[in-house]
């Protein structure tokens, strides 16, 4: 329960523009960005996306 409260406070702050962007999974980050865009909340800088591996090299 406590973890949920902490996460909710962080996300609420991001939704309202009171806090800068925190690192979330990609779907949560996109939903926050969409909410901010639709509601005219000042764009907060989003965390950089992690590098994605496209192929594996033999060991």
From TrEMBL:
GO molecular-function term, one example from the UniProt record: glucose-6-phosphate isomerase activity
GO biological process, one term: glycolytic process
Protein species of origin: Crenobacter luteus
The protein, known as: Uncharacterized protein
Highest taxon in the source lineage: Bacteria
